[in-house]
Recover the amino acids of this structure.
């Protein structure tokens, strides 16, 4: 894939390295040419000096052929403008913007812009580490949704997936049983020994625990 990264700070440089190691063609854009010194010299990345939301700069970076763009500068405004320009004007298939202000992240998410809010993500992860939890997060999707793994407690054996579903807050995505994993329906009945994966809002952890009898 051809990926453009706007911003060559610590995150941008690390992202360029990770994507380069995965075999993607990476172009990094930054207003400061010395910022490119952060790039791993073992990974080949094209570089363009300029403002990340300038049309000519993006054209020079190859945005017409780009498969994805990540805007990760230190400015929320720059990231949003660059991401919206990439998605709405150049129709780049995959666009992500980093935002420091959680309030802005929610607003732009409602407008269809995929955002990553490190502050919100960090708060949730630190709270998890400081708090004892019987829900084991195995994956975070953005800053608000977790995939958690949990063994079905005895009191839910014989109950159905529907009983552990909270619309718009928590859904069972898979059940592991007898050495195999499958996608359940709302009517699937839990059995002793089941391990389930739940996609849930991080803010809904207490409600999920209550349904599981863990709270």
């Amino acid at each position: 894939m051809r990926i453009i990264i706007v911003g060559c700070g610590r995150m941008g440089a690390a992202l360029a390295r990770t994507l380069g190691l995965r075999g993607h063609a990476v172009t990094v854009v930054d207003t400061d040419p010395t910022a490119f010194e952060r790039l791993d010299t073992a990974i080949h990345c094209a570089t363009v000096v300029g403002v990340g939301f300038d049309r000519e700069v993006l054209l020079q970076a190859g945005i017409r052929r780009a498969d994805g763009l990540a805007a990760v500068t230190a400015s929320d405004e720059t990231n949003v403008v660059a991401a919206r320009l990439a998605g709405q004007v150049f129709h780049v298939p995959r666009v992500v913007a980093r935002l420091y202000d959680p309030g802005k992240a929610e607003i732009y998410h409602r407008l269809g812009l995929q955002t990553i809010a490190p502050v919100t993500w960090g708060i949730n992860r630190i709270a998890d580490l400081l708090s004892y939890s019987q829900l084991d997060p195995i994956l975070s999707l953005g800053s608000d949704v977790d995939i958690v793994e949990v063994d079905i407690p005895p009191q839910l054996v014989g109950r159905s997936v529907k009983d552990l579903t909270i619309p718009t807050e928590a859904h069972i995505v898979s059940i592991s049983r007898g050495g195999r994993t499958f996608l359940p329906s709302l009517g699937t009945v839990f059995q002793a020994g089941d391990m389930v994966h739940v996609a849930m809002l991080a803010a809904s952890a207490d409600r999920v625990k209550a349904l599981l009898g863990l709270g």
